[in-house]
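Form 7-S
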Amino acid sequence: MANTKLKSFIILLLLGFIWGTGYSIARYATLNGVPPLGYSFWQSLGPAILMGIIGLIFHQNIKLNIPHLRYYLICGLTGITIPNTNMYLAAPHLPAGILAVIVNTVPIVAYPMAILAQVEKFQWIRFVGILLAIMGLMLIIIPKSSLPDPHSLPWVFSTLITPISFAFCSVYIARFRPADATSLSLATGTLLASSVLLIPLVVLTGNFYLPHLHPTTSDWVILLEIILSSTGYVLFFQLIKIAGPVYYSLVDTIVSLTGLFWGYLIFHEKLNIWSGSAVILIIGALILVTQRQQEKLC
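Output:
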């Protein structure tokens, strides 16, 4: 039992570290010649190919009937295409650490949605967490000195689309996930659906990114994130297998802290009194909103 808890905790840390690293990688890529839509496309197709190969090895085939196709399409749109593309569009304009913190308010956004969908019950302590998160966001939005560039403020608002979309997808999965399919096959189908949805967007907008014959640093960065994302999916499946789904929402706090760490290390991003207070409030809110999951782990 103790060995399982230790293994779960190590996987949790690795998963949070890998996902948290992605924000700085996305910022670097989009600041160095990779169009956000093009980057989003490769971060759908690349992991889809790797997950598909893993699925073939373990004989976990993708089901192609109407219910499953509908699931892939809705999850691909709300869980990958919209939130990832929106996040990559914002990446050049916001500090990587702040971006990571805002994006990972998913449990905070998902909780009211889950109540409306009758998946969760109202709890005062989690409601207080939501209020803390709102206060934290206000500390980023209202003071003019909160962000390094005041002109990046509209991107804070647009970034909120990402956790809202992720939250909708998580509630949809909780209500409508097909029972006769594995997580690996569903993830592969969702990633493929997202890739198909992005093809007309990258072609019509002229934002398709073609890797160079002699790879540039940006090309290697894209490949690195594909590998990290795919590794993250594998770790996620293993975490669910040995520890259950309650660990999922606990990852967000680690992802936020990792995003802040890499933002400081790579881009020398520093928090001022306003943004620092906002981060403390939002992370505190995450802890309160996920307290039910923490209780289950004790």
